[in-house]
Write a structure and sequence with these properties.
The structure is a single chain. This protein is mostly helical and about 120 residues long. It is built from five helices and no strands. It is found in: Cell membrane. Its main location: membrane.
Length: about 120
Amino acid sequence: MFDAIALLLICQLTGEIIHRGLGIPLPGSVIGMMLLIGWLASVQRERPSLTAVSGWLTAHLSIMFVPAAVGLIDEGPVLSRYGIGLLLATAVSTILTMVVSVLVFLWALRRFSSESKNEP
């Protein structure tokens, strides 16, 4: 369990170091996630502890949005000035994300289900 948490934290920390050190315009957590994906792709083995930790984090993901939501309270003047635009942009981007996700899912379903039917 601790090795999985350490792996996640090391990838995130390395991503932050790369972000701040090289000035790459991606958040350090995104760079860390790419490092984790690269590590998972290069080291092929079962990872039950990483699966358990990531499952727990995913199940409690809503708790991690609380600091961001509390931070919005401090932005009252900005929200009162641009709130309608922000809500509209959020709604449109959410709908577009859902439509693109469905289209990608349908494409992948057609592509990979036909390949699995052709295999012996």
